[in-house]
Amino acid sequence: MKKRYLVIFFIAVIIIILGIILISNKNSKEQIIKVDDSEPPQLIINGKDKKMVPIGTENIQDSATATDNIDGDITDKILVEGNVDTNNIGTYELIYRVSDNAGNTTEKKQEIIVCNPLGEEGLPVLMYHFFYDENKEKGKGKDNNWIDISDFEEQIKYLSENNFYFPTWKEVEEYIDGKTILPEKSIVLTFDDGDASFFELAVPVLQKYNIDGTSFVITSWYGYRAQEKQKNVNYESHSDNMHQGGRDGKGVMLSWDYEKIVEDLNKSNETLGGNATIFCYPFGQYNESSIEALKETGYKLAFTTKAGRVKVGANKYTLPRVRISKTTTLSQFKNMVN
Ligand SMILES: [Zn+2]
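That is the input. Now the predicted structure with zinc ion docked in place:
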């Protein structure tokens, strides 16, 4: 008798275990279906995240496409929200939104800048070097590469109050290529050498007005400055160690072997975190092989000390700048940037 009960008991246990396995299998299948359902659709806008539009443009909306893992092509479900007044200068936002049948939504934003386009006169890229404080140490005896910090602040305040636009380097490159317009009051600020006076005096002014500038760093001298990653400062290359005179009295970038120049440019880029794409020639000096070496090492734009503005179609490796110095008055400055 006892044996029979034992057999019945075991059979019952086996049936219960099988039942549990069956139920848990069913649950896990349902879970897989739920995971599939929770995937949001893919939304692609066929335009830039930030788009410059000339005032008065009529149709500014870009086409877009949407696909879903379950529903397939759902492009016809895309909705675009936001009001852009193309007859008024300003910065606007469009929101592209799409939902699949299960209710998963994908949303993308596009910034629209309605502006008067910069004219044929081109983009001023300002060139600064060193700073001093007239109240503490007199500027007397300092050369034209220096500027009193209160004059600098006056200039930055003017740019801030008059709503100047500060394009990114990518936008500058696209402007040269004719792939984007820039607002008429566009300007770029550059600071050569990465000197201590720039960081101590000028950077706090940039931060006060929340305006970005580019520090062209001589990385073997001041590379540690770039590691500090200060707000409102972009770091680009002024060579690793080519900011020195050779035997002929000219910068060594003109006399070093090609391979040595390439090595220097790579090293400078490495110190800057591998993201450097803009170069400033030491002493503004360059030749054909400097340009070749820059192209080989991935630099996209290079600046000289030649006077002028950056124009559409310009040679990207011999770009001019506008020099600001100790003797530049505010009214001269206004002429230089307008
Ligand atoms: Zn320099």
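The pocket of zinc ion is lined by residues 192-193, 238, 243, 282 (CB under 6 Å).
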